[in-house]
Amino acid sequence: MSVLEARDVRVETRAGAPLVEGVDLEVDRGEVVGIVGETGAGKTLATRALVGLLPRGLRATGAVTLGGRAFEAGSADARASLVRDAAIVLQNPMTALDPLVRVGSQLTEAVVRHGILDRAAAAERALGLVQRMGFDDPGWVLRLHPHQLSGGMAQRVLIAAAMMARPTVLIVDEPTSALDAGVRVEVLRLLREVTREQEAGMLLISHDLSLVSGFCDRVVVLYAGRVLESGATATVLRRPRHPYTRALLACSPSATAPARTPLPVIGGAPPAPADWPPGCVFEPRCPHAFDRCGAERPRLLAREGVRAACHLLDREGG
Amino acid sequence: MSGGNRNLRFGLALLAAMVAVGVAGLVALPDPNAQELTATYLPPAEGGHLLGTDGLGRDVLAWVSAGIWISLFIAVAVVALSAAIGVTVGLAAGYLGGVVDALLMRLVDLQLAVPPLLLFIAASAALTPSMGTLIVLLSAAGWLPYARLIRNVVLVERERGYVAAARLAGATRRRLLLVHLLPAASTTALVLSSLEMGLVLLWEAGLSFLGLGITPPHNSLGFLINEGRSTLAAAWWVVVFPGAAVALLVLAFNLIGDGLRDTVHRDVDVIDR
Amino acid sequence: MLRYVASRLAQGLVVVLGAIAISFLLVNLTGNPADVLGGGFLPPEARAELARNFGYDEPLPARLADYFAGALRADFGVSIRTGEPAAGLVLDALPNTVILVACAMALALAVAVPVSLLSVLRRGRGVDRHVRTTLLLAGSLPDFWVALVLVLVLSVQLGLLPSVGFTGVDSLVIPACALALPLVPALVRLLRGALLDVTEQDFVAALRGRGFGEGYILVRHGLRNAMVPFITLVAFQVGSLIGGTFIVEVVFGWPGIGTLLAGAVAIRDVALVQATVVIVAVAYVLLNLAADLLVAVIDPRVRVTAR
Known about the structure:
The complex is a heterotrimer of chains A (318), B (273) and C (307).
Chain A (H helix, E strand, L loop, with lengths): L1 E12 L4 E11 L3 E5 L6 H8 L7 E9 L2 E4 L3 H9 L1 E4 L13 H11 L5 H14 L5 H6 L7 H13 L5 E5 L7 H17 L3 E6 L2 H7 L2 E6 L2 E7 H6 L4 H9 L39 H5 L5 E3 L2 E3 L2 H7 L1
Parallel strand pairs in A: 3-8, 3-9, 6-7, 7-8
Antiparallel strand pairs in A: 1-2, 1-4, 4-5, 9-10, 10-12, 11-12
Chain B lengths: L1 H27 L31 H37 L1 H16 L2 H8 L7 H28 L2 H8 L4 H37 L11 H9 L7 H28 L3 H4 L2
Helix pairs in contact in B: 1-2, 1-9, 2-3, 2-5, 2-7, 2-9, 3-5, 5-7, 6-7, 7-8, 7-9, 8-9
Chain C lengths: L1 H26 L5 H6 L5 H11 L5 H13 L13 H36 L4 H13 L4 H15 L11 H31 L2 H7 L5 H39 L4 H10 L3 H29 L1 H5 L3
Helix pairs in contact in C: 1-4, 1-12, 5-6, 5-8, 5-10, 5-12, 6-8, 7-8, 7-10, 8-10, 10-11, 10-12, 11-12
């Protein structure tokens, strides 16, 4: 039962230069889908387009179905889903709250203002959610001001805030990159539990493959604004079909490799949006590229439970 | 940004128009000090006086035209002097730091606490008003914004790569200041100058209005406004026209400054007074 | 917190000392105040007696020390016009000026706040540019001239409002409006800048992420956050606001410091002039301190960190 479906999401500048193209996303109830890619790959833009939060000057198209409604990516309708159906948790927990307002007020603000709950009910739910987040004295936390929270505390509070309207889709953007290692695990665990409990679906954006491998049911690999591979996490990460995914995995520091093993890197750099090659976007850096790769953009092909956009698959699959 | 450009062009056009009025005065209008006691308080467009006459029969348009020159002269002199002192001190403070910088910052704090206009008025208790003393007095307050601005610009530019490169290449301190840092500061100084022109014009008009600035035989716009105060009900033109002239001059410089800021300079924060 | 207040007071003291020094300098600019007082026209015996009376024939360092000591006690000598203590006269006139300034500020804020909000919400579009041009014009008008024009229209032609003196609330209207007019552009510039800075912050993005519209965010969250730098910046400008009041006061014969000062300057009442300069500086320091305290009330973070 899918809570989010997006087809052919495209984000472009006002001048028409594409930043994200042909992205399909699907999230089922209770499922955690990870979106991975390097910085600048378009992960943030693609997800923002789903809820109409693009920066000024960018346009989006794409068919999105969320919360039982269908709308165009990047539209005002898309933005309306943030009221009830979708919630977004951003990267820097320490700066995501109004510094002048108490935490409790900020948690209840949206649901009360949008008419979802009355003040008393909202306060009660806030208390319950904060307690669920592992705080022993939730009443005290709600009375605090944001600067009195630590990073981990703030992120947990923000997750509680996100869940206030009981959204069906949770978009979480690098939720732990600003947190200490010890707190990371805790926050991620809470995220996954709460998603499952509320029967919501979660889109987790990260550049950290190890994080994704631990927490996501499925993974989507984004590079230069296009999906290169997607599928069940275990399958994709154990037997990646796309050369980029393979290279990415090889580059991740391994805890088990002997010390001083040189870290492989992928030569070159991702192309700027204006310089997207006509064929496969990864072709300039791909060790297995052949002539078709430079000329024709590969489509996502399904092979053994994963989908990858690579001509190699075509060649061997037949 | 077309908005900035438009402001700039409009401001320059306005300034040119005002100067044209001034030129007309030199060439075609009667002596502003010429009194015609049989033609006092003539309303505009009567008896050949386009803007009317005042209580002593003096032609208002002629006075306004002469006043424009006086105001511009004073403003240019003050701004030039202020800029000269301010930029020098600012360069020194920004580059050398230390005592010079600390002293400058204390002076800036002080100027905030004791507003220039208050100082000017107070100083007039001890000074005899003359054009020279007025220019010096106004510059005594006018140099601080330059110094502060240039000091800030220097502090920022000092850390930039090209300065370090020049230093490594053996540039002397003087060369660094003059050849590298001064040009970086000059665009900001230019924008500040147009805004300062407007401010000095207002200061001078105010002081002349109080009788503490330019007095006859020189023709100040502020002075005429004051003169017309007592007969405001009967002869409004003696107050309205010179004041409008001041406003238009100030507006011209504000437009120019605003336009320059948008087209030349992106760091608006550095300039805000 | 207490430490913070103490340090601000200390800074303020430095400023006040500087103001005292300046006030001393002003009067001694052209030599001896005895010459200033007499206008240089006194016969030698009269001048000598004047100098003796006021202690002006003492050597400079002694005079400076004397003056400082006196100023710190709020003793500036007596006004040569009335013989009353100068400080007392200034303090009597101060409340009238404060009332005028407060009204002008309130008026200006009433206009500046909505204009700033509008300008930020519609930034870059037609409305914003028109607003900025209008503000540019408003900031170019000499306040005393605006005062006179207003008097002309409202008082003379229409007979609506009085034009002289402080005779009640209606006499406040024109002078306050005249003062407020050039104040509005300055306030808008500051507030707009502060609001724009706030909209760049992360929590605003987070608020958008909770489904709130730009207008709601700006008014309910942006304004309060912008107030923190705004109040501080406005407090800095208070000095020039008071300075700008002087001429308008003279135009209306408003019984405040401005009229007092103008009268003092005309008869070279040195003590009164000096007292005015120093008291204005003290008022500025106190106002800034009040602003800092106000900020501490609004912003919980400030209470924790004593700067």
